[in-house]
Amino acid sequence: MKRVLTLLAAVLFSLPVAAAELGDDGLHKTDWMRDTFKDLREDLEDANAEGKRLMVMIEQRGCIYCTKMHEEVFPRPEIADFIRENFFVVQLNLHGDLEVIDFDGESLSEKQAARKWGLLFTPSILFLPEEVAEDQTAAQAAVAMMPGAFGPGTTLDLLTWVQEKRYALDTEEDFQRYHARRIAEREAEKSQ
User: Fold this and answer.
1) Measured between alpha carbons, how far is 26 from 111 in angstroms, rounded to an integer?
2) What's the whole-model pTM score?
């Protein structure tokens, strides 16, 4: 009986929670996204005040890869909870017209910001440090960028790598080596 309950608990905890709903702009909306004035300097201050990292997600209506992330990856409890606890998430629309104020003070539309930052694909996620120089853009300041849709393991590893500031450590372990190590560790845990 104990084995059945353990198996049932494992299955239940591995199931994703409800996927995000679509907003009027056609983008997926989650409870961990923030509705801000999209002044990135203010968003960074708010993230820092909460002890979180600023994460800027660029998505677009009809994006099959955004849908994949919102239906298969982000709803997983371990990922949704990690984002909720550690990140201040601001969503931008690749083709949107809402005003964004970049870290360098330039005011532009969402689509102009995406072009300025050289973002062509969605989803693209920029991870920002706690401090950004006044003359830097979001793309220049980003400590990492997630260009596209990834599986749950890669996504959680990148979120963890950023949250733990592993990009700033003086080691030879860049993200790819960190991710490879984490894959090997997970495989070793499964075989035990």
Assistant:
1) 15
2) 0.87
Return mean pLDDT, the chain: 91
State the DSSP string of 148-191. S---HHHHHHHHHHHHTTGGGSSSS--HHHHHHHHHHHHHHHHH
Task: Give the range among 9-18, 140-149, 159-168 with minimum mean pLDDT.
Answer: 9-18
Place of tokens 């920029």: 126
Cα 133 to Cα 146: distance, rounded to the nearest angstrom: 22
Query: How is residue 9 written in tokens?
Result: 């608990």
Taking the CA atoms of the chain, what radius of gyration do you get in angstroms? Answer: 18
Contact 130/163 with Cβ under 8 angstroms? no
Q: What is the CATH number of domain 18-149?
A: 3.40.30.10
